[in-house]
Amino acid sequence: MSRVSAVLPRIKPLVFLACLIPAGMLAWNTWLVILGPSGGGLTDLGANPIRELQIQTGLWTIRFLAITLAITPARQLLDLGPLAKYRRMLGLFTFFYACLHVSMWTAVDWFFDWPAMWDEVIKHKYIFVGMATFLLLIPLAATSTNWSVRKLGGARWAKLHRLVYVAAVTATVHYLWAVKKDTLFPLVYFGIFLALLGYRVVQLLRRRRAGTGTNRRPGVARTGGTGAG
Questions:
Q1: Residue 197: CB atoms within 10 Å
Q2: Mean pLDDT across the stretch 137-153?
Q3: Helical H runs in 36-124?
């Protein structure tokens, strides 16, 4: 085992705390906004703090989603097996920031005005796609436990969790349609997610070919299923 692989399990608590830093910074800046000019602090939330909070929580959701999906390629290509233990934690942080993002819109921006929010969802396609993305993430977060894997069975669990790639695409479309003109960063994320999805497809095709080749050999049994990562 390489030195990096040996260190990875030990620093998981530090990585957990690092994942909380963006939320802590946003909470601190929000507190400075609440204090107002008399608080004496500078804030990075600009003239429209609510909108900026929506943007920042959305960006962190996409960033954590990209990091989560990059775990498996990094683990396989760099031979870092212990990275697999980070995937669940990073996936849940993705959902955590997605919840913050949706909460900024529903609770802070619209104060739970459900009829008005429904009209916005129907009227604006980027909001519709964003809500669809959030709904896709809910079952993935809810079934992230070992109990869920045992209950669903490995194959069904893996099939369900492939929805994360659909969520990655819809999240990027939501980002792209929301910014309208400044499309550079949404397209960069779109390219990253396509590359990660392409890697996944190539790996699946290789496993299928290997399985087919194994079946053609007399006296050799076909080996078992695949994971979701």
A1: 17
A2: 94
A3: 49-77, 84-103, 114-123
Identify the H or E element spanning 187: helix 184-215
Distance CA 179, CA 200 (A): 29
* Tally of CA atoms within 13 A in the half-sphere of 166 that contains its CB: 13
Which pLDDT belongs to residue 208? 87
Separation in Å, CA 223 to CA 67, 155, 167, 199: 30, 13, 30, 21
CB 80 within 8 A of CB 4: yes
Of the pLDDT bands very low, low, confident and very high (cuts 50, 70, 90), residue 115 is very high
Q: Report residue 226: phi and psi, to 5°.
A: -120, 165
Per-residue pLDDT tens over the stretch 164-207? 999 999 999 999 999 988 899 999 999 999 999 999 999 989 98
pTM for this model (two decimals): 0.87
| Location of structure tokens 């775990």 | 71
What distance in Å separates the CA atoms of residue 24 and residue 16, rounded to the nearest whole number? 13
Q: How far apart are CA 159 and CA 176, in angstroms?
A: 27
